[in-house]
Amino acid sequence: MLVVVAGIAVLSCADRAQAQEEIGISRGSTPDPVALENLDGETVDLADYFGKRPVLLEFWATWCENCEALQPQMDAAYEQFGDRMDFFAVAVGVGQSPRTIRRHLRRHPVPYPLLFDKSGAAVRAFMTPATSYVVILDADGKVAYTGIGAQQDVGVAIERVLEMAGQ
To answer: Residue 117 is part of a domain; what is its CATH number?
Structure first.
């Protein structure tokens, strides 16, 4: 696990602004759902969401500049599509704690649920290469999109996934 966590810290600091069509977990695969905690310490089992309607996961950190640059796009996507799919920010367990995340969110709120991946379970399940990594699962719970960096077009990716679902 240390290698994966260290890799996230190193890659997220590099300039990873280019969006990529497929990175991390393979498109078409069905990830193992994981249970994470919200900032109140309550367990949120992602299995309760996978396979019902599309789900977007953004792997995120308070110190991630690409995440900060991507946030306006994520806010707009949630505003436009939040009634048709589930959104989650997954805070990686590198260099942050629920306390530091809460403090950050007071100044920079995120409109959808934020889950804390302190053990790296979600990072491993989704083969997360860095922060600002976005995974969209279709209504069947299969990976339909992966991208990384502030330049990815999340809205277009969501539209494609919703079109495939007939929404």
So the answer is: 3.40.30.10
User: Quick one: which of 141, 124, 142, 3 has its CA closest to 133?
Assistant: 124
Dihedral sign for Cα atoms in the order 61, 131, 90, 123: negative
How far apart are the C-alpha atoms of 159 and 103, rounded to whole Å?
33
Short-list 76, 69, 110, CA closest to 91: 110
Q: How are strands ordered across the β-sheet holding 114-117?
A: 43-45, 35-38, 114-117, 86-92, 55-60, 133-137, 143-148
**Interatomic CA distance for residues 7 and 130, integer angstroms:** 7
What dihedral do alpha carbons 99, 105, 110, 114 form, nearest 10°?
A: 0
- Domain range for 113 is 2-164
Q: What is the pLDDT along the chain (167 residues), one digit of tens a residue?
A: 333 443 444 343 333 333 445 689 999 999 998 999 999 999 999 999 999 999 999 999 999 999 999 999 999 999 999 999 999 999 998 999 999 999 999 999 999 999 999 999 999 999 999 999 999 999 999 999 999 999 999 999 999 999 987 77
The terminus-to-terminus CA distance of the chain in angstroms comes to 38
Number of domains composing the chain: 1
- Please say whether the beta carbons of 82 and 59 come within 8 A: no
